[in-house]
Amino acid sequence: NVKPLTTLTNAIATKKDKKLGATITLNVNPSTEQRYLVMGENMRKNMAISINNVPLKNDPDNGSKTVSLPIDAEKPTTVTLTFNRNIDQIDLDHFALYTLNRQPFEQAVAAAKQHAPKQVVKNGSVTLTTRQNNSGYIMLTIPYEKGWQVDNKQVKIQNYRGFIGLKVPSASLKFTLSYHTPGIKAGWTVTSLGLIGLIALAFLEYWPRNGKHAVLVNWPARFRKMWQ
């Protein structure tokens, strides 16, 4: 129930009969390449989209949306676009199908592996050894959390989508990344001061009531004579 279209990207899809529902069905040829379906905000508002009869969740955020299509070398992928009720025509804004060019991607991965630092994990710390000409940033698959230090020194840790990243230190080829619980030193200091204060308070409470002789009662005789 849609008038013929010669193209899809940025085309206007119009119903033939406004009283009936309308769908557009696309059959994407089988492929071993990763492909992505891109659609604009207009489509998301006015259409229900399903891939291989599985409805696509319409996220509440605005703007365009990119959907990863399943990789299937044997069967085609079916994309169904269904007009929402009371919608007679839809602007297929930014609607397009893209295929990932894997060659540059694989080259980038190979280069990253070649320059990746060697790492040794021991006793809760990570020792990294970089190449002499390495520069830039290192990202590790360690969940981001404040408290990580490099060679026991405070450094700026980046949050890369929930993982930690840091700039490669220019002064050394080998450095150790270790975790120190934030505030633990200050906590020990406060605890120690609290214990000292508690002991002092107990001493002050005990001394006036029992006198100095009570404190010295268990001392050796030669020390008691010095205070008597």
UniProtKB/TrEMBL annotation:
Segments traversing the membrane: 186-204
Keyword Amino-acid biosynthesis among UniProt keywords: no
Coiled-coil intervals, chain numbering: none
Keywords on record: Membrane, Transmembrane, Transmembrane helix
InterPro entries, sorted: Uncharacterised_YfhO
PANTHER family, A to Z: INTEGRAL MEMBRANE PROTEIN, INTEGRAL MEMBRANE PROTEIN-RELATED
Record protein name field: YfhO family protein
Native source species: Lacticaseibacillus paracasei subsp. paracasei Lpp14
